[in-house]
Design a protein that fits this description.
Layout lengths: L7 H16 L2 E8 L2 E8 L14 E3 L4 H7 L4 H8 L15 H14 L2 E4 L6 E9 L5 E10 L5 H20 L4
Antiparallel strand pairs: 1-2, 1-6, 2-3, 4-5, 5-6
Helix pairs in contact: 1-5, 3-4
Length: 177
């Protein structure tokens, strides 16, 4: 089959499976739809989350690493509009709910090119995400690893996982349209 005609989920799934197996954590790809992210591909390891995520699952963009990556690709006014005026739901005591603070975080994510969400959707869950660009350099999705929040500091998780995520994003880039 010609790669160019293959749907995005099928194109990314083998790379997600390989990444998940290599790192031992769940890997996902999502797209932005309004104010939510929609999972389009996932390779799950069975240890982290009580909520089960699969392709088609939705989470709010404002409190997820993939959502913040994707919000950071938009013009700031549009990102702000998608976050809304609040009040935003606090899923855990760690969920960022102040739209101004979230926008500051989105601006920083845009600069550094990766996002960390630490126990904002579920206690005990941390996720690290990077943008997934196509061959023309347009960000079309976000790529993420989800892991248990214990064991290493958030900074150590970022240092360990961001290079792995970026390598997979770079590997996929040439074949994505």
């Amino acid at each position: 089959a010609c790669l160019a005609s293959m749907p995005l989920p099928q194109m990314v799934q083998p790379a997600l499976d390989a990444l998940s197996d290599r790192i031992g954590e769940s890997a996902s790809v999502s797209i932005l739809d309004g104010d939510e992210i929609v999972y389009i591909a996932r390779s799950a390891q069975r240890k982290v989350m009580s909520i089960s995520l699969m392709p088609g699952s939705r989470l709010p963009a404002y409190c997820t690493a993939m959502g913040r990556i994707l919000l950071g690709t938009l013009p700031m006014a549009e990102a702000r509009a998608r976050i809304g005026a609040g009040p935003l739901r606090a899923y855990t005591p760690h969920t960022m709910t102040d739209p101004d603070r979230i926008m500051e975080e989105v601006a920083q994510i845009r600069e550094r090119g990766h996002a960390l969400a630490d126990q904002e959707v579920e206690l005990g869950l941390r996720s690290v995400a990077v943008p997934l660009a196509n061959a023309r350099g347009h960000v079309i999705a976000a790529l993420n690893l989800g892991l248990a929040s214990g064991g290493e500091s958030p900074e150590a998780a970022v240092a360990r996982l961001v290079p792995e995520l970026r390598a997979v994003a770079a590997q996929l880039r040439g074949s994505l349209r």
